[in-house]
Design a protein that fits this description.
By secondary structure, the chain is mainly alpha-helical. It has one domain (5-140): Winged helix-like DNA-binding domain superfamily/Winged helix DNA-binding domain (Arc Repressor Mutant, subunit A). The protein is 50% helix and 6% strand. The protein is built from seven helices and two strands, in the order H-H-H-E-E-H-H-H-H. The protein has a two-stranded antiparallel ribbon with strand order 1-2. It holds the Pfam family Rrf2. InterPro entries: TR_Rrf2-type_CS, Tscrpt_reg_Rrf2, WH-like_DNA-bd_sf, WH_DNA-bd_sf. This is Rrf2 family transcriptional regulator, nitric oxide-sensitive transcriptional repressor.
Length: 145
Amino acid sequence: MQLTRYTDYGLRTLIYLALLPQGRRASIDEISTTYDISRNNVNKIVHQLGKAGIIETKRGKGGGFYLKKKPEELNIGDLVVLLENTLQVVECKTPQCRILPACKLKGILGQATQAFLDSLKAYTLANLLEDEANNLIQILNIQSD
């Protein structure tokens, strides 16, 4: 299974936000420049994460966004489900597959997808930062201002 770039970018954005010093906000331009992602993609991600209550956003002067929840409260499996448009590995109905009534493939792939998600649900955003936060801060050139 391969996740979409959107989910990849969403997780990268959350990693970045988790590394920010307390009280510091990020901007769309900051994330876009840091990861070389289009502003449009970052804007969509921030909007979705804001609607889900994961980040807090503020417009205008002094604006930006930051994690509303602690990294240990953000489950990776749940984030993937939120960010992915669909986790369906195969599409059997459009166009209608002729072998659908007798096919076991969809069920097997569904079990595999669930096992994948169950594995991801064993981790939080905090787990992604363990022992690497300082390295990531340097690599991403995150400033404390």
